Amino acid sequence: MRTRRDEWVVDSDGLTDEERVRTTREVLALFASDVAEAAFDVVTPDGPTPPGFADAADLLRHRARGRVEDAGYWTFDRAPVDDEIWAAVLTVAPFSYFADLYGPQGGAPIVSLADEATSSVVRAAGERLAQVERVVGRDRLVPLAEWRAHRRAARREARRRRSPHGSPRLGPDHGRGAVTRGGASRRRAGLVPLTTGRGRWWHLDGARGKLTTPKSSLSRRVTVSGADSGLRVSSR
Question: What angle do CA 62, 63, 69 make, to 5 degrees?
Fold first, then answer.
């Protein structure tokens, strides 16, 4: 896959949830004049509803092109962005499983978020890049090509640590049955797709401790606990 020189990962490692939400909104605000279209999902967060979230989600439901079957999780299909929608995007996007923001010329997204903004990629150069750097700090901006190279190296190291027979080192419970969550599951070579209860698949690689979504550009470290009937996943 070809990687542009103006694509950067915003590394959120070590940020608290509150810091990640605030930083994400500040970065998005920098691109307000550049965004012409947006596509994202609206995910009602667990726990207390963030300030303004319910009103923003309600507005987006009324502006959505398709019918919303589940108010807790639904997708806002790609559509033009006006001031009203943009204000709502700033509110809900930090909690989305995916959010892609496009410039007036179309093409690749100028900002892509995934996994509740733990995975963030921006396309920026010149003064716009300097603005992002001032918000997040230079040490949190990593060229996407460098990030992908690091991931490839991590995969090679993981393969190197496999057993002599070429199989991943799995826990003692591997193969005893399906891991379940949200009523849908299966197990295949240590890779488990599971739903969050809102119809979105997350892919859990128990051998390497990684959790990703279909739209995720970055992998996540995870901790899994509990029996098959009560799987709990926490991630960073």
Answer: 55
What single letter denotes the amino acid at residue 159? Answer: R
Q: What's the DSSP call for residue 50?
A: P
- Phi then psi for residue 23, to 5 deg, are -65, -40
| Better-predicted residue by pLDDT, 26 or 159 | 26
State the Cα–Cα distance between residues 211 and 226, nearest whole angstrom.
16
DSSP string computed for 128-184: HHHHHHHHH-GGGEEEHHHHHHHHHHHHHHHHHTS-TTS-----TTTTSS---STT-
Contact between 196 and 210 (Cβ < 8 Å)? no
With 90 as the cut, is the pLDDT of residue 85 above it? yes
Residue-wise pLDDT for 169-180, tens only, equals 444 444 333 333
Give the C-alpha separation, 60 to 75, whole Å: 10
Q: Is 78 helix (H, G, I), strand (E, B) or coil?
A: strand
